[in-house]
Amino acid sequence: MMGRRMASGTALLGALLLAAMLSYAQQDEPMDHAALASSYQAEAKQAQAKAAEHEKMVDRYKKLPMSPKGSTLPKEEMIKHCQKLADNYKAAATQASDLAKAHQEMAAASK
To answer: Burial, 30: exposed, middle or buried (Cβ in 10 Å; 0-12, 13-18, 19+)?
Structure first.
């Protein structure tokens, strides 16, 4: 269930980014591509940090002899859950990095 929430969260992130871009594009003022690039770079950095955090959790769960005390989920499920989150955050980071690069190029071209 958590994996579905994260997958839909990644889709939601993409939809929100698209909505922000469309809203910004519909304004009368020219787009500030440098500012958008900076914003997407920050988002990519945050997503990369979250991916690294969940990869560390994967490593910790793999080293445990059994599920953590009090956990209702098997160790293997926790590993899969954390790995899926790490993968989704990596994908979000890639998307944000790609958008940052595109806006950097547009900023350079508009000078």
So the answer is: exposed
pLDDT per residue, tens digit, the chain (111 aa), is 445 555 555 666 666 666 666 666 666 667 888 999 999 999 999 999 999 999 999 999 999 988 878 888 899 999 999 999 999 999 999 999 999 999 999 889 887
**DSSP symbols for 58-84:** HHHHHHSSSSPTT-SS-HHHHHHHHHH
The pTM score is 0.72
